[in-house]
Amino acid sequence: MAQPHYISNKNESVRMFKSDLMELLSHVHPATPLVLYLPVVGYMLYAALWQSRLSILAVAGLFLLGVLVWTLLEYIIHRYVFHYEPKSRLGKQFHFIVHGVHHDYPNDARRLVMPPSVSIPLAILFWALFAITLGRFAPAVSAGFGFGYICYDSIHYAIHHFAMKRGVWLWLKQYHLRHHYNDEHAGYGVSSPLWDYVFRTTRK
Predict the structure, then answer these.
(1) What is the sign, positive or negative, of the torsion defined by CA atoms of 13, 172, 198, 140?
(2) Residue 200, Cβ neighbours under 10 Å: how many?
């Protein structure tokens, strides 16, 4: 069995699509989530404070709630969507495109963050859901949710391509690499192991 390695080969990749356009769109620069969503998070905080007129304390609490909601969604998607095991040939091909390629080529630096063609529709969907259910509290929760997503993609990239030699960063790196190289049916949390402990999917 391959062992965790901390110096990644950033050029390790595989072609996934016959179409040059589709292949190009499947490669995403790791800074993309920061560029796309940090301004959105900033605007949502502005809307919460100056349009919804919430107190700083209320915004801070709702922001943290949004981060917590993201970590739960991250866990659910990773466990039940990314690691779903389809039986059909088409299902297996789709699974490879969605997540299997990452386990086969974990050091592919251009396939470690979600493509905007997927993340933008999902962001709109969750923003609409928060707006419908939370009303004037939605912007603050949305800001935390978006920030949680940014942290997830950034931490995931750093785990695979930065040394992260000490403290909580080293611990997160080791935690995620054990998911890759020791047991892919445990350790679904990437930015946080919280829900692995709640649902008892840490490594035994």
Answers:
(1) negative
(2) 9
